[in-house]
DNA sequence: TGGTTAGTCGTTTTT
DNA sequence: CGACTAACCA
């Protein structure tokens, strides 16, 4: 197997002398290094799979890694191998150790919508901006491992004090719900390990070798978790690329790359610079753009896959025209090469940009799938069903209670809920518990109380059965009992009920499979489900369709032909990033986009687009000017502009010759 | 209590 | 222009 690797890749795989950092440029085979290293650890170094943990950032990446390792070694040898995201790993640890933290092991996980609701209630506001920024500030505090108490003590200004108070009450609310948010899943294990060395030791013994993927995306807490688990032996391999760090806004800290060298002086640094994905011109563009950023580690990608076609830049007048031209190019290219739709990806900065493309795709009957954006788990009908399951697993989960008791409608309205809520608050119990309390029963009329009681009795019965009965059939029974399908058909706007019901069926199928395969109860499954965007990507692979994706969601993927749309000032780089001096990260985003392309890259922008209903003049992105002119052909037309001539034949010849020389051909 | 409607508001990226 | 909310009627 090792012969399939190039020299630095092999070096990275076999190095077991201590901490190892692999600086892996885009397309340089980092997943291959990680998977081969796992195989090497088991096969050659004689390690037990259950002592190895590979940590990624997305479930998709984890799944892919699992599959690729599965192709290298027989199943028996991989038994107990941990391949998971930081969040799933934290979740696993916390389910086992919850009691050390005063939580019950059946705690719920709150998604950001639930969290936003809590914040909005605490602040008594509906201002989305304010809620958003409060959430992100609390998240930052958590990621820097500052507790509510510490935040209160540290507060320097009125604003900071308010924030700290909000943080405190938010956290108290979470505790009352017996719920954790995403950040807690990382933060609490670190707290736990610091407070209980014996627990840390247990996990150090269990996870003796760590492999961390996308290391440049780790935040302070995640790095501390890695450091704690790696312990004094420092047996880990981190793989990352500072040029692909695009998550600073959610706390990722590129400086962790430098810290690694500081904290582990013996760190072995290995660079992977040969790219196996893109043709030379694409890499030249990528290198040129990223060259405008300051460098942490010197690194230059190269490939021997040939020069390739020039990068095409399409100009158009409006966003509709942009979509039309991009799709024209896409269709004619696909026609000429007789290729598959799935060879094409359209990438953009923000989710909303997909809509215009989507509309035209639909009109032209071009098949497409959208990755990123609203995940399966975020769909209303799925959240409805999961609310029931969450409540069954943890009856203290008030958001789940509220959602499930009101969907489908069962005669419990806002007034009753309000009463229940304030009663629960004064008694300091959950909504669910309050329903059974004498004090509450007398507060409402029998007609209002009846449905509440019926609902809670129903949940109680389900709880008894959920621990023992097969998951799939029980869930089906639940859906039948609440008449969920009928409810969907009665509410088939704006999305058709068939589609929603299909999603629910997919969920049932997934849970049934999980229940049978791993012999897990409904409760077991529900407790891990919050982090799984399960059906994501399921049919993506076998359906022949154009991929629409945000730049963020495209990281780690590759496509023969890539279109990068909306390449304009205030979009890419995004306005907020320009205002907050974050243009370097936007440039890395551009870099990520460019390096997704294998054979051709087409970039587009338009002269004006609608924003909040108003037409706005737009300027081409500054990043366009950073592309090497000799590798670019501009086509299309902008209002007032003549199409620009391509380079002359002679110029191109000379440039090509120079290029060939540069890449050593 | 629940569904309909007429206003209002405003677009980053995600585990 | 379209999604989402707050008042409004059945």
UniProtKB/TrEMBL annotation:
Region entry Disordered, spans: 636-656
Keyword terms: ATP-binding, DNA replication, DNA-binding, Helicase, Hydrolase, Isomerase, Nucleotide-binding
Source organism, top-level taxon: Bacteria
Domain UvrD-like helicase ATP-binding span(s) in chain numbering: 3-279
Annotated Basic and acidic residues bias: 639-656
Catalyzed chemical reaction(s): ATP + H2O = ADP + phosphate + H(+); Couples ATP hydrolysis with the unwinding of duplex DNA by translocating in the 3'-5' direction
Enzyme Commission number(s) of this protein: 5.6.2.4
Residues binding ATP, per UniProt: 24-31, 277
Domain (UvrD-like helicase C-terminal) ranges: 280-556
Enzyme class name: isomerase
Stored InterPro entries: DExx_box_DNA_helicase_dom_sf, DNA_helicase_UvrD-like_C, DNA_helicase_UvrD/REP, Helicase_Rep, P-loop_NTPase, UvrD-like_ATP-bd
Subunit structure: Homodimer.
Reported function: Rep helicase is a single-stranded DNA-dependent ATPase involved in DNA replication; it can initiate unwinding at a nick in the DNA. It binds to the single-stranded DNA and acts in a progressive fashion along the DNA in the 3' to 5' direction.
Family note: Belongs to the helicase family. UvrD subfamily.
Name under which the protein is recorded: ATP-dependent DNA helicase Rep
Organism, as annotated: Iodobacter arcticus
